[in-house]
Amino acid sequence: MDSVSSDLEEYARRRMKLAGFSVIGYDHPYFAPLDRLRSDFRARGDELTTFANYDYLGLSEDERIRKAAIQSINEFGVGVGGSRLVGGERTCHRALEYDLAAFIGVDDTIAMVSGYGTNISLVGHLLTKGDLILVDDLAHNSLVMGTRLSRATIVEFPHNDMERLEEILKEKRSHFRRVLILIEGLYSMDGDVPDLPKFLELRNRYNTWLMIDEAHSIGVLGKTGRGITEHFGLDMSDVDIVVGTMSKAFVSCGGFIGGKQIVIDWLRFTLPGFVYSVGLTPSVTAAVREALDIISREPWRIDKLRENSRYFAERARSLGLNIGDAIAEGVIPIIFDTSEKTMIAGRALLRAGYYVPPIVQIGVPKNKPRLRFFLNASHTKAQIDGVLEALVAAMDPSRQRAQFSSKHGGPATTPKNVVRLVDTDADTSTGTARAR
Ligand SMILES: Cc1ncc(COP(=O)(O)O)c(C=O)c1O
Predict the structure, then answer these.
(1) For the domain that residue 353 is a member of, what is the CATH number?
(2) Separation of alpha carbons 337 and 370, rounded Å
């Protein structure tokens, strides 16, 4: 038993190193409990500003949403004790699904306990042998994992490369019965968008289906936050199937699928991640319904998010920072050339009162580490100016050298839960750049 366990430990140690742990070292800002960070800063008379959270519309602390969730617990309880198919159904579930459908502009939706799980289950379930799935090579890990589950043939196309996608379609379309193209509405690591009109044109010309993951685009893109279709002045009914999460603009958790009535009816009876999983906890249904209501009644939140995003992007560019292809809507990365510099900058920002966890190795190509900023409707211009000024200061080469060589003891102001950054023997030759 001992030897089995130590084998596993050794294996885990090696796999962890491969996954990038040798780069991030022990003094990393991951898993930092935000409540404690905040209270530590407050105790010193400072404020912590987070750019780490996809609370795009500034609703995460909203009293009305909390109240709705609590009221729902009082009415329905905490859990529902079963799959919705067989005993877990409550009236609040369909009410949420109708509200989501009305908001995004589809016939119907189905809501599930996890956004990640929704994608895996749906992509794994939709198509089968003899079919083809074409997936953008920067698509979210949950979509990629779904393709691995599917029995269809999978082909990745280079991110947003329409010419390459068309070449693949020309070459392969006739060999497969059905073809599904998988893209995102707003890419979560780069903040860029697909050319939706062109995707739809190819979809029509090559007789394929188009599925869009709108996790980051709903509530963010378009005048009223309806997502990528509104961004391009198109109609959601143009898209075959849409998925989203309730963890971003809707500040709760869970995933949903939207589409034509018969498609959603079919999934309601057959989708494994729905049929074989518990129904959403009622407090989530109430919180999301309240968020939907607030978003519709307070459109200024979307305008403010847009204004903040544009301001951040303009200021960042004017300071010579690299924001890649971000279109300045909600998510904007600052791209670095090495993981070490990214880690050091993230740590310096935290010390200055801004939480922006570095994204290195896992989630992005290893030669494009970044600090990913989620802007929100509650940020002030002073906070945006402040974080960018602190970042420019942190990127000063002389400062970076000084910080990198301080092996034996972080500054006295390092928050309690962030352990000291040790010098790393950076192993950038390995890693899981694809594992978003
Ligand atoms: C594009 C995309 N799809 C799906 C998900 C999974 O959603 P959730 O975190 O709500 O499970 C994420 C998570 O961040 C995402 O970025």
Answers:
(1) 3.90.1150.10
(2) 8
